[in-house]
């Protein structure tokens, strides 16, 4: 795209555009499996399609065990129980994060030590972890923003040195990798999200990735409301009973069937998103606009950071007048009411608050095509 004049061209489609920030993915393969689930006459957790999803994800991620859950939030809560979090324990995570990552551990009695982010990736700055460690530190939560990995080599090295568990919040990361390893499969535990906003979705759903053998048996007990129901189903015990903490975390068969229809299309789905991501990136690169990432991950998010909050908000307003929805993202957790109550910031907030105030996410989903991206680009060009 050497001819930058093309971006001001009036030779565009003339119909009124209406571009939402997101539309949930529908591949067309879901209905077949949902109907099959109904015909099987079992709709609870750990049914035929739930096991199919688990096996698919175990093969994809190479995790030792994948347990399907009702949400990524529930998977994180399971991770907190498995981490044996107790009152007064500390958990390190980035403040630029979704509330579920903190809530899961606060519910077990932990205090959160928030650290600053890398201003380029918006991920936790691994160089700041060691200074936040105390004798009470139990877990590091590494959230991979936009499907782009944290510095997992450094994080795992620190964790092993101090004998701390690592939980990967890979909610954005289906089909995303770090040095040929699927995100969520590197730490001791990992989580995935299949919320309707994700690349692959079933409305509400998630998965716990168990990468450490010592957690496998207990994870299944926690999933089954704290009972040894798995052993009962295997014929190991005659009756199942309450043996540990737990809750009703299992994914229903209808959601699992819907999800299975999408998982089989993961490469095609992500390839479309990455192609659209690259279309955005080429435009910004041609105009030498700063504040954009140089990595696509799995094409989950395309974000753009402005020099000021006012400029960001002006662009959001302009896009809205063009019937294009661009949005901000997380508010820093350490600035929230609950964040101040249950945690504290370690070190200086150099980039977290500024990044949150200046970041804009542009529409990126499989409901778009190259023409829609061109419409968005031209609307941006008018302001630039």
Would you write up a description of this structure?
The protein has 384 residues and is of the alpha/beta class. The protein has 2 domains: 4-26 and 265-383, Aspartate Aminotransferase, domain 1 (Alpha-Beta Complex); 30-263, Type I PLP-dependent aspartate aminotransferase-like (Major domain) (Aspartate Aminotransferase, domain 2, 3-Layer(aba) Sandwich). It contains 14 helices and 12 strands. The strands form 3 sheets. An 8-stranded mixed sheet has the order 1-9-8-5-4-2-3-11, with helices on both faces. A two-stranded antiparallel ribbon has the order 6-7. A hairpin with a 2-residue loop joins strand 6 (177-178) and strand 7. The longest helix is centred in the C-terminal third of the chain and has 21 residues, at 266-286. The model has no long low-confidence stretch (mean pLDDT 94).
Report strand order across the widest sheet. Answer: 1-9-8-5-4-2-3-11
The chain-level structural class is: alpha/beta
Largest sheet: 8 strands, mixed
CATH level-1 class of the largest domain: Alpha Beta
- Mean pLDDT across the residues is 94
Number of helices: 14
The helix/strand order is HHEHEHEHEHEEEEEHHHHEHHEHEH
Cα Rg: 22 Å
In percent, how much strand structure appears in the residues? 5-15%
Basic shape = globular
Low-confidence stretches: none
CATH topology of the largest domain: Aspartate Aminotransferase, domain 2
Q: How many angstroms does the end-to-end distance come to? A: 17 Å
Tally of distinct domains: 2
Report the count of strand segments.
Answer: 12
Proportion of residues in helical segments? 25-40%
């Amino acid at each position: 795209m050497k001819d930058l004049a093309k971006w001001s061209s009036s030779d565009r489609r003339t119909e009124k555009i209406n571009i939402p920030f997101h539309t949930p993915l529908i591949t067309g393969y879901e209905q077949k499996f949902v109907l099959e689930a109904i015909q099987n006459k079992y709709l609870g957790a750990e049914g035929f399609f739930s096991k199919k999803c688990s096996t698919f994800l175990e093969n994809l991620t190479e995790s030792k065990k994948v347990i399907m859950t009702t949400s990524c939030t529930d998977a994180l809560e399971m991770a907190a129980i498995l981490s044996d979090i107790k009152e007064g324990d500390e958990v390190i995570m980035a403040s630029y994060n979704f509330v579920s990552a903190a809530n899961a551990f606060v519910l077990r009695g932990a205090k959160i030590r928030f650290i600053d982010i890398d201003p380029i990736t918006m991920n936790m700055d691994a160089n700041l972890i060691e200074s936040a460690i105390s004798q009470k530190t139990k877990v590091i939560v590494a959230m991979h923003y936009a499907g782009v990995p944290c510095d997992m080599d450094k994080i795992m090295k620190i964790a092993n040195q101090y004998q701390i568990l690592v939980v990967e919040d890979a909610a954005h990361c289906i089909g995303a990798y770090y040095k040929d390893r699927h995100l969520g499969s590197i730490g001791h535990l990992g989580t995935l999200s299949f919320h309707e906003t994700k690349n692959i979705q079933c409305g509400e759903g998630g998965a716990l990735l168990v990468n450490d053998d010592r957690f496998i048996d207990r994870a299944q007990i926690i999933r089954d409301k704290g009972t040894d129901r798995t052993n009962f189903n295997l014929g190991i015990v005659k009756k199942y009973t309450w043996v540990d903490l737990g809750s009703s975390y299992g994914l229903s068969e209808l959601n699992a069937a819907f999800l299975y229809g999408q998982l089989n299309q993961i490469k095609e789905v992500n390839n479309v998103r990455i192609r659209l991501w690259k279309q955005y990136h080429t435009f910004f690169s041609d105009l030498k606009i700063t504040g954009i990432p140089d990595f696509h991950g799995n094409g989950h998010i395309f974000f753009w950071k402005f020099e000021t909050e006012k400029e960001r908000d002006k662009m959001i307003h302009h896009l809205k007048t063009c019937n294009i929805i661009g949005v901000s993202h997380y508010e820093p957790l350490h600035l929230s009411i609950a964040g101040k109550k249950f945690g504290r910031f370690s070190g200086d907030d150099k980039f977290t608050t500024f990044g949150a105030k200046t970041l804009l996410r542009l529409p990126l989903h499989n409901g778009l095509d190259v023409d829609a991206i061109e419409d968005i680009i031209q609307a941006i060009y008018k302001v630039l």
